[in-house]
Amino acid sequence: MAKELYKKLKLLREQNQFSQKQLADELGISRPTYMQIEKGEREITISEAKKLASIFSLSLESFLTNNISASREVILESGIKSKKQSDIRIVMPRANVKKFKEILLYVLNKVGAKPNIGETALYKLLYFIDFDFYEKFEEQLTGARYIKNHYGPTPIEFKKIIENMEEKKEIERVKSSYFQYEQKKYLPRREPDLKSLSAQEIKHIDEVLARLSDKNANELSDYSHNDIPWKVHKSGEIISYESVFYRDQEHSVRNYEDEL
């Protein structure tokens, strides 16, 4: 297998902030064996390549190509030109970034200390906060875009916003463990500015947290993976907000019969 693929694997792992042990566990191999793959001393099997592609939200073909520079570039304000034509440019308006930050801080203040709320669980809570709001009110709450990946719906802008908040000392990233698994958690360093949220929006967030924040990792994963918006998209695709209107009874949060 081409040497560039092993370099690409290491680059993708570092960009997505995975440890070698985390990927080794996902592949069902030991960390030393995984290290051999990154060093080019062991071939990747097809099943391993498919699993890694899914983890990084790529098609198998994209994962196996030798291009190691292409990435999703997240721009938090409009009017900034991308330097690389190969990048996928995602623009999130300043106002939406502000609201996303305050909602994130609100959620962390409410449930962030719970042992089950690591980064992956936080992704899912934010997804349901956004998509449930759109189903109920047909309006976007934060405007964040979510992609389908191996772990479930993932907000594209999340990592860039977190980096920005860490620089401003608004949030702190810590590592912990949940049962035998390594876990990333986030601690709020300031109170959320609730002036940017309406009473309706706060009530909605509280309802989502009351319904979902006590679910363990497997329960939350199963629930999100059975939601129609996640099911109907391919790995790596941006999940359409419009797909919430095709939800089943278990996931729908809107009483359509009252509107007839």
Automatic annotation (TrEMBL):
HTH cro/C1-type domain span: 9-63
Molecular functions per Gene Ontology: DNA binding
A Pfam family this chain is assigned to: HTH_3
PROSITE patterns linked: HTH_CROC1
Organism: Candidatus Wolfebacteria bacterium CG1_02_39_135
PANTHER family per UniProt: DNA-BIDING PHAGE PROTEIN (PTHR46558:SF4), TRACRIPTIONAL REGULATORY PROTEIN-RELATED-RELATED (PTHR46558)
Keyword DNA-binding: yes
InterPro entries tied to this protein: Cro/C1-type_HTH, Lambda_DNA-bd_dom_sf, SocA_Panacea
Name this protein carries in UniProt: Repressor protein
Keywords of the record: DNA-binding
UniProt key word DNA-binding: yes
